[in-house]
Amino acid sequence: MTRTTARRGLAAAALVSATALVAAGCSAGSLGSSSGDASGGGSGATTTITYLTPSDDTTVAQTKALITAFQSANPGVTVSTDTRPGGADGDNIIKTRLATGDMADVFVYNNGSLLQAIKPEQNLTALDDQPWASQLDDNFAASSKGTDGKLYGGPIGTAFGGGVLYNIPVYKKLGLQIPKTWDEFMANSKKIKDAGGGVAPVEQTYGETWTSQLFVLGDYANVEAAVPDFATKYTANQANYANTRQALAGFQHIQEVKDAGLLNKDFASATLNDGMKAVATGTAAQYPQLGGSAANIENLAPGKTNDVGLFALPGDDASKNNLTVWPGTSALYIPKTTEGAKLDAAKKFIAFAASQQGCEATIQASPPQGPFLSKACTLPSDVSQVAKDTQAYFDAGHATPALEFKSPVKGPNLEQICIQVGTGQESAEKAAALYDQDVKKQAQQLNLPGWD
Amino acid sequence: MASTVSTPEATRLAASGTTTKTGRARRKGPYPYWFLLAPGIIYLVFFVVPTLSSFYFSFTRWDLFTSRWIGLENYRTFFAEQALVIGLRNTVIYAVLTSGLKVVLGMALAVLLTSKIIARGYLRSVIFFPVLVSAIGVGITFTILMNPEKGLINTSLARVGIDGPGWLTNPSLALVSVALVDVWKGVGLATVIYIAGLVSIAGEYNEAAQVDGASRWQLFRTITLPLARPATASVITLSLIGGLRSFDIIWAMTRGGPGFASDVIGSVIYKQYQAGFYGLSTAGSVVLFLLVTVIVVPLTRWLNRGED
């Protein structure tokens, strides 16, 4: 027993020294907007809360608009922003700050599978009792809950689809129809290739690795339409990508477009912005991508926003071609370390973000590409074509949340594995098996039953 | 950190220097032992404790909040997974390639820069300059230069009618491209070590051999090369250790990609850490530690044999 205590002691010392470095590193990189901190405790007239958010331009602009609107509606509360990098580096900052009790009063983090990795039951304040909780979109609410069934996340931003962004003028010029099956998609692509003119039928952008995953992640709606209990079985290690034909199809599609020579010439080095520009200007016809990425078109190719539309990745069955959707990739959370007046202010802030006024503020900075996450908010009428196309799938009941919202199991190396297929290093079948192996580590880390 | 670590070492050396005179009776140094206390505590807290606890955590499944003992499972995972095995193989290739090139090029440049050529001092600083630049900066710069469509290297090659390869996007070329950049950046240090080694070779040997009619090649092979052996040992040891634990340039240039084609242990460890597999990534660090030890300790023994 004493030995374990000693080990714990060592562990704690190591952790403290390690996290001190991380915390120091992240505060050095933050925006210099912490001036409000000093006035926080003093007079009691105003409460200052800190807000931690990703540092990409869109989010920063969105945050600024939201905070300005909130502060003018609530003069007693000041919100000071702190930023963190996105992706896996950001995950680590969130985890270490939570582990050391040093988290901001309100923070933005992923919902869905990644939420479970920060142990919401242990680290976050439940928000079920909030007035806005009953108005949430069902998919968003379901993906913002802990394993105990309590709601931990508040809404920010909009939902969006993950499918194929396509160039409408190219489709019109060649008289193409929106494909409902994979065969139709390939037939369209071949027509685009044969028509020539330097238009790449399918755009891929491996210079930004995460963009490679859309063929697999965006195909999930088709998997679920064919195998309704896939997510449950997948979580319990009873079904996987290699042994489920419909799930394997995503990997095969990457290989097929590569083998058929349908990709843009610079697919290995192009970035997301290159890809968005290509599909907006018509040098590429189809780009499997998140609908949310279309928010940036106006900056990359001014005036081309409505030249781009979105359709669901097609599968086997035209009658069951649903759109895979992301009911918000992130949510607002309050850590357990936020208490007293700050907790009240933090709750007020989230309630504001869930109101029509808050929703409108967030879309000032970046145009919405799908419906809001709270039923209390409605979209303006002049939204982009991608938003309209996405909304149509929602209205028709053809929107299925991505697998990461149905199962906590997601491997970290999917993007590299997809690139292995796309660059011809591995076959689709081998890649699916590799991904199943990758997933196992995550499941074991989460201590899920059936994986040891 | 480095200076605090070297302090006890210096004290020990100073102490042992005096004991040779006073004999075995009592080791009496010029400084009292409590001088060691401050650096000793810093060393203990920031080096010994984290090292030992990392050995412990490598046997657990750890999520920063809780850890669970799982024995050798992490190591089994590490060696069973294709990506990790590629990383292990690439690490060795990368280390041997960069180390070998640094020895050969470093020696060649040192011979050139110790001979009587114009602008020698200027050329010496030019060769050394890349060593001073941040690895991330070098990595990002070369990533742009090596872009297959828009990069300066391939657009220049296209001017003379050569269709340049995808330096960083071709899976079979990516690791070599990064290794070449690493050599470009690091060869200056090897050159400086060799210059120091060559300058310390007494001129009489060469003069005597020249009188006997030895050719330039014979001078190099039979005098310069064997007498520069201590320098060679330093260059190999330093560059091999550097190569085995390299991470920064690779991460800045390819992030281990395309796919896993240019992953090394360093980048694999980092990716496991990013994914939140803290136990697994700690196990990777232990593997790296063992790999460096297993390769470098016997190598330095062999390189320095007969020197003492």
Q: Report mean pLDDT of chain A, rounded to a whole number.
A: 86
Label the structural class of chain B. Answer: mainly alpha
* Largest sheet descriptor of chain A: 6 strands, mixed
Head-to-tail CA distance between termini of chain A: 26 Å
Mean pLDDT of chain B: 85
Protein name (chain A): Raffinose/stachyose/melibiose transport system substrate-binding protein
Signal peptide (chain A): 1-23
Organism (chain A): Microlunatus flavus
Pfam family, one (chain A): SBP_bac_1
Question: Any chance you could write out the topology, listing elements then pairs?
Answer:
The complex is a heterodimer of chains A (452) and B (308).
Chain A: H1 2-28, E1 47-54, H2 57-73, E2 77-84, H3 87-99, E3 106-110, H4 113-117, H5 120-123, H6 138-143, E4 160-167, H7 168-173, H8 182-195, E5 200-202, H9 214-217, H10 220-226, H11 230-235, H12 245-259, H13 272-281, E6 284-290, H14 297-300, E7 308-311, E8 323-326, E9 330-333, H15 340-353, H16 356-365, H17 385-395, E10 399-401, H18 414-422, H19 428-445
Parallel strand pairs in A: 1-2, 1-3, 5-6, 8-10
Antiparallel strand pairs in A: 3-9, 4-6, 4-7, 4-8
Chain B: H1 2-22, H2 37-57, E1 60-62, E2 67-69, H3 73-80, H4 82-114, H5 120-132, H6 135-145, H7 152-159, H8 174-199, H9 203-211, H10 216-227, H11 229-244, H12 248-253, H13 265-274, H14 278-303
Antiparallel strand pairs in B: 1-2
Family (chain B): Belongs to the binding-protein-dependent transport system permease family.
Keywords (chain B): Cell membrane, Membrane, Transmembrane, Transmembrane helix, Transport
Subcellular location (chain B): Cell membrane
